[in-house]
Design goal:
The structure holds 2 protein chains of 2 kinds. By secondary structure, chain A is α+β, with helices and mostly antiparallel strands. Chain A is built from 7 helices and 6 strands; from the N terminus they run ααααββαβαβαββ. Chain A has 2 domains: about 5-135, GMP Synthetase, Chain A, domain 3, CATH 3.30.300.20; about 140-205, Ribosomal Protein S8, Chain: A, domain 1. The longest helix of chain A is centred in the C-terminal third of the chain and has 23 residues, at about 140-160. Chain B has one domain: GMP Synthetase, Chain A, domain 3 (2-Layer Sandwich). Chain B is built from 3 helices and 3 strands; from the N terminus they run αββααβ. The chains are: A alpha+beta, B alpha+beta.
Chain lengths: ~210, ~80
């Protein structure tokens, strides 16, 4: 009887954590797997099983960490990988003394790691909408901060002058950052124009 | 990075994107540059090459970043055996 109360508490906790962690499909599914334990006579055993099956169906964050650790561990054993989930994207950060080696010119090596990581994750998961970001030595983060500042400055300029401005061509991920930044500002809108490598953002007064 | 370590890195990258990772083998040839050949299970070449060569290009990029830049590195998918 006492055990059952504990189990109910435990499952209630699971329910709460599920509600808090939005957009985490794997935790939802592991909770769904845990659900039948409400009716089973031997809750402890069933719980233990549902936990182990949760680790067997590799959560995307774990799969990403495993893959990248496999890569960087073969390059330099001192490199480490941190992974976190943010805004529907998985963000991996490679840290260590030689992490900058994995940036590449204009972040090309990071992009290559993203392509490979995405391929690995989408191979055995049902999250085709998954976005994967890989950073090393804070390269992407610093670049992103610069881009946000630049976008804000240009948007302010457009707001004051009322004259549209065209930005330099940017990669899709970078354009997204600019769109998001300026979306949060009043009096200006953004639009991507052009195709392929010349596709760029125009900032217009609203 | 020594040749054998680079082989192992390339093997790991290729094995990560195919369905039959155990079938992946790497050979290499020394010329004016070092060329690594990725051998995969029959029918899995496309997996390693990727749409518009995106995967093989990504493997090359990572391999070159890991290399010591003293030598040019090429990575190709070995032609399937008939």
């Amino acid at each position: 009887m006492d055990k059952k109360t504990n189990l109910d508490d435990y499952l209630a906790d699971l329910g709460i954590s599920e509600a808090q962690e939005e957009g985490q499909p794997s935790s939802v599914s592991s909770f769904a797997e845990a659900n039948p334990t409400f009716e089973t006579p031997e809750p402890e055993e069933t719980l233990a099983r549902s936990e182990s099956s949760g680790t067997a169906t590799l959560e995307p964050t774990v799969a990403l960490k495993n893959f990248l650790e496999g890569v960087v561990g073969r390059i330099d054993p001192h490199l480490q990988v941190r992974v976190r989930k943010a805004d529907g994207a998985l963000e991996a950060e490679i840290v260590g003394p030689s992490a900058a080696q994995l940036i590449g010119r204009d972040g090309h090596t990071l992009t290559a790691l993203e392509v490979l990581a995405y391929t690995v994750l989408s191979k055995d998961s049902d999250h085709p909408d998954l976005r994967v970001h890989v950073d090393a030595a804070q390269y992407r983060r610093r670049r992103q901060e610069r881009l946000v500042r630049q976008a804000e400055a240009l948007a302010t300029q457009v707001m004051k002058s009322g004259i549209p401005l065209e930005m330099e061509p940017l990669a899709a991920a970078d354009r997204r950052i600019v769109h998001m930044t300026i979306k949060a500002m009043d009096g200006v809108t953004t639009e991507s124009v052009g195709e392929g490598t010349v596709r760029h953002i125009v900032i217009r007064p609203e | 990075m020594p040749l054998s370590d680079l082989s192992e890195l390339i093997r790991y990258l290729a094995a990560s994107v195919v369905d039959d990772p155990d079938a992946v083998r790497i050979t290499h040839k020394r010329g004016s540059e070092v060329t690594y050949f990725i051998h995969v299970a029959i029918g899995e070449e496309g997996r390693v090459i990727g749409r518009q060569g995106r995967i093989i290009q990504a493997i090359r990029t990572v391999a070159r970043a890991a290399g010591d830049h003293k030598e040019r590195i090429q990575v190709d998918v070995a032609a399937p055996k008939r």
